[in-house]
Amino acid sequence: MSNLKLGVEVVSAHNLLPKDGQGSSSAFVELEFDGQKFRTTVKEKDLDPFWNETFYFNISNPDELANETLEAHIYNNNVKSHSKSSLGKVRIAGTSFVPYSDAVVLHYPLEKGSVFSRSRGELGLKVYITDDASVRSSTPLPAVDSYVNSHSTHSQPADQLVQDLSPDPSSKGKKGSRHVFYHLPKESHAPQQPNSYVSSSQRPINYGVDAMRTEPNASKMVRVYSNLSSQPAEYALKETSPVLGAGRVVGGRVIRSDKPSSTYDLVEPMQFLFVRVVKAQDLPSKDVTGSLDPYVEVRVGNYRGITKHFEKTKKPEWNTVFSFSKDRIQTSVMEVVLKDKDMLIDDFVGMVRFDLHEIPTRVPPDSPLAPEWYRLEAKNGEKTKGELMLAVWMGTQADEAYPDAWHLDTSSSFDSSVPQALIRSKVYHSPRLWYVRVNVIEVQDLVVAEKNRFPDVHVKVQIGNQVLKTKHVQARTANALWNEDLMFVAAEPFDDHLVLSVEDCVGPNKDEVLGKVFIPLNTVERRADDRNVHSRWVNLQKPSSTDIEETKKDKFATRLHLRVSLDGGYHVLDESTHYSSDLRPTAKQLWKPSIGVLELGILNADGLHPMKTRDGRGTSDTYCVAKYGHKWIRTRTVVDSLNPKYNEQYTWEVFDPSTVLTIGVFDSSHGSKDMRIGKVRIRISTLETGRVYTHSYPLLVLHSSGVKKMGELHLAIRFSCTSMTNMMFQYSKPLLPKMHYVRPLTMTQLEMLRHQAVNIVAARLSRSEPPLKKEVVEYMTDADSHLWNMRRSKANFFRLMSVFNGLFVVGKWFGEVCMWKNPVTTALVHVLFLMLVCFPELILPTVSLYMFVIGIWNYRFRPRYPPHMNTRISYAESVHPDELDEEFDTFPTSRSSELVRMRYDRLRTVAGRIQTVVGDVATQGERIQALLSWRDPRATAIFVTFCLVSSIVFYTTPFQVLVLLAGFYVMRHPRFRHKLPAAPLNFFRRLPARTDSML
Q1: In angstroms, rounded to a whole number, what is the distance separating the alpha carbons of residues 823 and 817?
Q2: How far is residue 652's CA from residue 658's CA, in Å, rounded to a whole number?
Q3: Helix (H) and strand (E) counts in the chain
Q4: What are phi and psi for residue 395, nearest 5 degrees?
């Protein structure tokens, strides 16, 4: 017989829901575990009751403890009706039980007791495991109903009461509340015996459709999710329960803590020692000039920070801030030494010592600490001439000085040559991109050298490294007509000019320039709609001229008729259309107000794969990059760590829910090409508003040898909505700006322009300090996603098969009905068919009502986590090595002969388009599936509400009228049609597909 028992201390409840009709409640708690049930006493008329009652449950089978669940229900005792009403409940999984030494009182948010009940407030419980033989199982209180009826105080035998109050066997195994809380005991308290509780909980456990797994060396419990397209647990998403600035996050909710909240409430607070070296005065003289070459050295243990030195001055000003992580400080004294720069050995001038235990702590929004003058001391402690102005304080990453501080503990001595600018965190803004439309109309008065031939002319248009040409036209009358549109991408500020040249093809691959013209882009007219731009005639200057203004000097020259405009009504695509983070037009006057705020906390990374070797060991120097809209962020670079901690928080405005946040992890090479470690994509529409998502995302990268896990990235994400009405209305609006539908661009144009936009953004961001390199920008924007490969084509094909799998199942079922394999089912189908034929007006309301019921039913199984990369959907686990070799081959190919290369490249180009078409078809089917799957909770809520309303409308409206109206609407006159897509089509295009889970 096991002595292991579960102790539950019911401490208190807070802010309960009033249920007695008089603004109060008479609450008691009912505990259920392992077939046993206990109840607390009733606290009359108290919405904040205190019990402080302890109960002990027998644990019948310790090996199965992880599969058990403790349920705590709070009820209101209704004396008049001799009944009880639910105030809420809490479910705690067996994997979260800890020894008594690790147990603390946690305040759990109350969940609904049933679908139609309401809940509010928190319940404070202390739950622990004990094997103390002196502890006896509790004797439960009498049932509340009998207590209310008889008011008796006698107790029944424990065994009899447990038998009477045990749950109904028919209800065993049913799913309860949606929130289950988990955490792990500390490793030092884990029992050593093989059959103990902790050992059994560390084994993989099958928990319904969710697989529960605990890492032996982890500090907290994780929940491993799997869906219909399950993948290995190693590659699955895991939910974590970190302690952030606002408190511990459990199940998407923040359990309040006693610490005051701060601005950085989505990251773990990190303590830093900040030292601001401002200036010095009254320094001693060194030579006849009476000046020094001073600089300051800050010493904290093995870490040192050095300011720049000034030449020949007695009043230097540095105003430099150094920071040291408190976790890495292994000394109690800090020294600030003033030295004089010398050719051989720097001279000691004076120093200031600080006891780290006496340094004050600053918590924003407190004002910055004022610097003070400190008298310099000699090495023996005596005061010397000179003063140093310093400010020393303890703070967190929320401190204003943190972004510009020199983080001396992030680089070791062997990296002292690395500029600190390459290590600091930074925020970037991508340039504002415009589409440049050049409409080449005609050219007149061509002058050619050869009079005996008709020139074969075309116009070459160039902006920077973008070059496009019109079609060739034979000018028989010294004039040529094209009326052809050419599109380019330009970025503000406009540094490049628009260069047009008229060329004559005089031979194979040989063109002769007949004239050219330069047009500054900042003089080009801007437009935000499709209004006509006035055309203009420009004079072409001589081919030998390089002067931009020389055109104005010629009284007579060849003239070019054209129309040029900067089209601000488009959204310039600089990333893959499946993962767009911004859909606004270029023109700011067309922007709508934001609908919410997205907050991202980059916590840490675990188990990163070594990317370089240093001192005979593998290590990495990693940083994270996040992109959403025009705003890019780069965390600080953590040097020499495979488990870096960032704890940096960033915020973006959200203008459209159908956008994607991208986070990438890179290894800094400090000069050469940065290596990619992995990335995470999160679609905003899949996030519930107000919920804090804390998950560990596996960093998956596809190599030529197969898919590989490079580590895990821990994130905290919260999407807050400012206007639910505006966000719901957003689902009826077009996905892209109006100009994309009024004057649409071809797919070929969009791909070409996107390639140019990525190059422009990469060139601009690479000129920042620290730079975001080109390989980083291309990886974040999926610049090479349009190239064909066999693996992705197979993945899209299987996605398509998965979409139509439901139709195949229905077809098979109907075939079985026709074959009378189940006579009862066939008879019921015949009855249903006769009913629908006799009453056709029931068809549409029945279908709508059925879809409404299915949508409501699927609400229980809605995803509780953001979508992530799925190796099976991506067909990355069973891909053939030869196909991987083909995917990682260069473009153009590096294989054998020229003929094979030409055919191979052509095949990949054509197949890339086929791949895109198949993927688009699969996307449409997956959007249909998303209507009732609650992948996008707001869209599904809109659809199921529409189904309910439509079922009523279809029922009350005659069927013939509906058919007539539908036919007239489909065949309506073009005068009554709009160029913009209809609201249902816009709603459908905003639905999430499984493209977010594709590698």
Answers
A1: 8
A2: 15
A3: 16, 45
A4: -150, -170
First-to-last C-alpha distance (Å) of the chain: 52
Say if CB 234 and CB 709 are below 8 A apart. Answer: yes
Instruction: Check the CA dihedral 913-919-922-926 and report its sign.
Output: negative
Q: Retrieve residue 487's tokens.
A: 């599109």
Q: In which element (H, E) is residue 728 found?
A: helix 724-730
- Token readout for 219 is 């500090």
Tokens matching residue 213:
């797994």
Residues 297-336 have pLDDT tens digits of: 999 888 888 888 888 777 889 988 988 888 888 888 999 9
Map residue 693 onto helix, strand or coil.
strand
**Nearest of 779, 750, 774, 748 to residue 761 by alpha carbon:** 774
H/E stretch holding 50: strand 50-58
Structure tokens at 768: 């920042």
Per-residue pLDDT of 161-198, as tens digits, reads 333 333 343 333 333 333 444 443 333 333 333 333 33
pLDDT at 30 over 80: yes
Ranges of beta strands (E only) in 330-453 are 333-340, 347-355, 372-377, 383-395, 406-407, 426-429, 433-444
Can you state the percent helix, strand and coil of the chain, rounding each to 5? 25, 35, 40
- Yes or no: say if 15 and 143 are a contact pair by the CB < 8 Å rule: no
CB count within 10 Å of CB 691 equals 17
Q: Residue 723 is which amino acid? A: S
Q: Give the contacts of 106 (CB within 8 A, at least 6 positions apart).
A: 124, 125, 126, 181, 248, 255
- Determine the 3-state secondary structure of 585 from DSSP: coil
Spatial distance between the Cα atoms of 619 and 669, rounded to a whole number of angstroms: 12
**β-pair type (247-250, 243-244):** antiparallel
Q: Residue 649: CB partners within 8 Å, gap ≥ 6? A: 263, 264, 265, 266, 267, 397, 599, 600, 601, 602
For residue 954, the one-letter residue type is F
**Pick from 291, 297, 284, 285: nearest CA to 310:** 291
CA pair distance 864, 172, nearest whole angstrom: 24
User: In Å, what is the CA distance from 860 to each residue of 659, 763, 853, 857, 934?
Assistant: 25, 48, 12, 6, 9
User: 3-class secondary structure for 498-558?
Assistant: EEEEEEEEEECCEEEEEEEEEEEHHHCCEECCCCCCCCEEEECECCCCCCHHHHHHCCCCC
Q: 418 and 333 in contact (C-beta within 8 Å)?
A: no
Place of tokens 């070409």: 752
Q: What gap in Å lies between CA 217 and CA 220, rounded to an integer? A: 9
CA dist 435 and 539 (Å) reads: 24
CB 412 within 8 A of CB 617: no
Mean pLDDT of all residues in 446-459: 82
> Cα dihedral angle (756, 761, 762, 767), rounded to 10 degrees?
130
Scored b (16 or more CB within 10 A) or e, 248-262 reads: bbbbbbbbeeeeeeb
CB 512 within 8 Å of CB 503: yes
**The two three-digit tokens of residue 123, written as one number:** 């319940």
Helices 843-858, 937-956: inter-axial angle, 10-degree rounding: 160
Looking at the predicted structure, is the pLDDT value of residue 495 above 70?
yes
Beta-carbon-side half-sphere exposure of residue 282 (alpha carbons within 13 Å): 10
* DSSP 3-state of 664: strand
User: What is the secondary structure of 272-327 as a DSSP string?
Assistant: EEEEEEEEEESPPP-STT--B-EEEEEEETTEEEE----SSBSS-EEEEEEEEEGG
Q: Fill in the amino acid letter for 835.
A: M
CA distance 187 to 220: 10
Give the HSE-up count for residue 31: Cα atoms under 13 Å, Cβ half-sphere: 29
Q: Find out whether 425 and 636 touch, Cβ atoms under 8 Å.
A: yes
CA distance 374 to 969: 84
Q: Is the pLDDT of residue 630 over 90?
A: yes
